[in-house]
Amino acid sequence: MEKGLLIVLSGPSGVGKGTVCAALRKRKPELIYSISATTRKPRQGEADGVNYFFKTKEEFQKMIQNNELLEWAEYVGNYYGTPIEFVKKTIDSGEDIILEIDVQGALKVKEKFPEAVYVFLVPPSIDELKNRIEGRGTETADNIKHRLSMAQEEIELLKHYDYAVVNDKIDNACSKIECIIVAEHCKRFRFIENKTKEGV
Amino acid sequence: MEKGLLIVLSGPSGVGKGTVCAALRKRKPELIYSISATTRKPRQGEADGVNYFFKTKEEFQKMIQNNELLEWAEYVGNYYGTPIEFVKKTIDSGEDIILEIDVQGALKVKEKFPEAVYVFLVPPSIDELKNRIEGRGTETADNIKHRLSMAQEEIELLKHYDYAVVNDKIDNACSKIECIIVAEHCKRFRFIENKTKEGV
């Protein structure tokens, strides 16, 4: 049977990863999304195994020790991470899974899971981003410099990715990501892998 | 400006390259198709630069000598080949161009144009192909053996391609090829190439 794909969707903060993911969920309800583990308390309406895998601090630390996370980080006193097991189970069942994650997290995932498909959401125009930062008029020259170098650093990280998808319009970005998934399934090496497994 | 892509669509004889190409033309009228040069005489209704570039034997031989063909072959006394110029012009203008060609021709093209996107149309099932060849009941054991080894050889050539598209249904195959084109335009290295050219 053909294995599923892990699609890592990332990009600089503010590029619209969450919005694009929400739109993808609507367009392709059959796509599975990676569920994070966290030590933060569930909010009203949140269910374990749906919104998050809710863990105690001790459980989470054990997951770290046992190498059960693709990546993890601490954020305002709570741990957040991506459990390997859910990703592997999904892929092994032949289904694709999407992981929406910041650029730092994506790089950590790549170390453990280089065979995933890495998609970088790009702001519509780097020039525009530059203009926006410079043109706000509310920031000091130092701040502008810092933000520009941050943006430059984030764009630099693009080199670790397989695909660059410009988020000019949400529907355009979704269509492109959907096509990337289809095309990746057609990659010759995957086809040959599957045929070899089937013994043909 | 972003360059166009050369998409080489190939596969074993009988897989349905022509049918898929004709369907693609209908679905995507904006796609440009490579026009072959030939020394065969125009048939009624055929126009130079539309169906073929019609050449004399001398002109064709000069094209061979001047390295103006991506590939060429002789077939029942006539030359057929793919002029480089038309392909390059199209790509440089930012448009994609599709070249439908047999597996032998595609390999020759790859030598001169490795940066093209190589798509291999695969019969719905290799098992089925096997059954079909064995099940015809009209062929000698030697013929069956020969056909099976031919099919095996053709499938072996798949390793030179970027993508394998199973031609189970024409519409499926077309959708996949369309997605491959979209995804290839999103390839990170192309994006960075273009940004570098734009000086961003």
From TrEMBL, chains A, B:
Annotated residues for binding of ATP: 11-18
Reaction(s) catalysed by this chain's protein: GMP + ATP = GDP + ADP
Keyword set, alphabetical order: ATP-binding, Cytoplasm, Kinase, Nucleotide-binding, Transferase
Cellular component GO terms, alphabetical: cytosol
Superkingdom as given in the UniProt entry: Bacteria
Annotated EC: 2.7.4.8
Keyword Nucleotide-binding among record annotations: yes
Gene Ontology MF terms in the entry: ATP binding; GMP kinase activity
Uppermost EC category: transferase
HAMAP family: Guanylate_kinase
Protein's name according to its UniProt entry: Guanylate kinase
